[in-house]
Amino acid sequence: MSHRNAPLTPTGRLRLARCVVEEGWPLRRAAERYQVAVTTAKRWAERYRAQGEAGMVDRSSRPRSCPRRLPRKVERRIVGVRVMRRWGPARIAGLLGLNASTVHRVLVRYGLPRLSHLDRATGVPVRRYERDIPGELVHVGIKRLGNIPSGGGHRFTDRQTGKRNRAQTPGKTLDAGGNSHVGYSYIHTAVDDHSRLAYSEILADERKETACGFWQRAQAWFASHGVSVERVLTDNGACYKSLAWRDLLAGNNIIHKRTRPYRPQTNGKVERLNRTMMDEWAYARPYQSEHERRDAFTSWLHHYNHHRFHTAISGPPATRVPNLPGEYS
Question: pTM of whole model > 0.70?
Answer without folding.
Answer: no
